[in-house]
Write a structure and sequence with these properties.
Blueprint lengths: L2 H20 L8 E7 L7 H13 L8 E7 L7 H10 L4 E4 L1 H11 L5 E3 L21 E3 L4 H15 L5 E7 L5 H12 L3 E7 L5 H10 L5 E3 L3 H5 L1 H10 L4 E3 L2 H5 L4 E5 L1 H16 L15 E6 H7 L5 H6 L2 E3 L1
Parallel strand pairs: 1-2, 1-3, 3-4, 4-5, 6-7, 6-8, 8-9, 9-10, 11-12
Antiparallel strand pairs: 10-11
Helix pairs in contact: 2-11, 3-4, 5-6
Length: 326
């Protein structure tokens, strides 16, 4: 081994050792992360893998210096309070969750254990934090601010369907009205007539899409909901049956047959959430950690679905797309 290789090898070893030391729990006993998820292990695998990869890159190895207590709601939001209570009883050091119901359940279960949120609407408007810059309390993480995202999705709908006049807003009744109200206002400002189709569960999807078709809506904006994400294949099937294009915030809808999506990269947000967990496990207070907002948004288009719907996607939009599904 020459001198340069020896030095480089030594530096690499030193960095690896330094990372491992920084991630060692003070007591030597593995710290414990509570992972409260809206879905199930299979559906959430991409996000969970990204989160664990983020932890690993920071020196936290599951089964060695950190343990993860998984709790899965499997699409049933009513299970959150009991699952959050279990994590508190297990005396986890931090809870990682996503969505309005998950945050609410975790906050109801504890006011002292730090809560890192990966995906949520405006946390200030919902009363979860005092401000984005200084959250206060025990909640921090990343906020999507979907109410600022849906106007852009509606603009893309108009770009793809220039003659669009009416748009259906598929809304999960349990998610509240904050995003619905903001999206209705955005639709009106763009000259669109919004029609809110509220559902309580997946059994009502069929009626909702038949209503949208019967009212001659030009497209369906699928608003954020863990239940919708869990049933995205079913939503794509019903939309295809009624010859309606769907617009959503996640490219996973598009990969499963939906028409178009525009939104943040969710696995990347889970990866970034690991940094919050790392800082908290090393002693920082969540109330002092500013909440991040997405800086990059991705556009995905399913060309096969577009063809089936008879929609010609403008070349300008295709050139902007981050992902094209054939």
């Amino acid at each position: 081994m020459d001198r340069r290789s020896f030095i480089n090898s030594g530096v690499a070893s030193l960095i690896a050792f330094s990372t491992a030391v920084r991630a060692q729990p003070p007591s030597g006993k593995p710290l414990r992360i509570g992972y409260l998820n809206n879905l199930n292990p299979d559906v959430a695998s991409a996000n969970t893998d990204a989160f664990k990869r983020g932890l690993k890159d920071l020196g936290w190895i599951e089964g060695k210096n950190v343990e993860i207590e998984y709790r899965w709601a499997d699409g049933d939001m009513s299970r959150h309070p009991a699952l959050a209570a279990e994590l508190v009883q297990r005396k986890v050091d931090v809870i990682v969750t996503a969505g309005t119901q998950g945050v609410h359940a975790a906050k109801q279960a504890t006011s002292t254990i730090p809560i890192v949120v990966v995906i949520m609407p405006d946390p200030v408007a919902l009363g979860f934090v005092a401000s984005l810059a200084r959250p206060g309390g025990n909640v921090t993480g990343l906020a999507n601010l979907f109410e600022e995202l849906t106007p852009k999705q509606l603009e893309i709908l108009q770009e793809v369907i220039p003659k669009a006049k009416r748009v259906a807003l598929l809304s999960d009744r349990t998610m509240g009205d904050t995003i619905v109200t903001a999206t209705e206002a955005a639709a009106h400002s763009l000259g669109l007539v919004p029609r809110v189709l509220k559902v309580d569960n997946a059994s009502e999807f069929d009626v909702a899409f038949r209503t949208a078709k019967g009212e001659r809506d030009d497209g369906v904006l699928v608003l954020p909901s863990p239940v919708f994400f869990h049933n995205r294949v079913r939503i794509a099937e019903l939309a295809s049956k009624q010859k309606l294009g769907t617009f959503s915030e996640s490219s996973e809808y598009v990969r499963d047959g939906g028409f178009l999506s525009y939104g943040p990269n969710f696995p990347q947000m889970y990866y970034r959430a690991a940094r919050y967990v790392d800082r908290i496990l090393k002693g920082e207070k969540p109330g002092d950690m500013p909440i991040e907002r997405p800086t990059k948004f991705e556009l995905a288009v399913n060309l096969k679905t577009a063809k089936a719907l008879g929609i010609t996607v403008p070349k300008s939009l295709l050139l902007r797309a981050d992902e094209l599904i054939q």
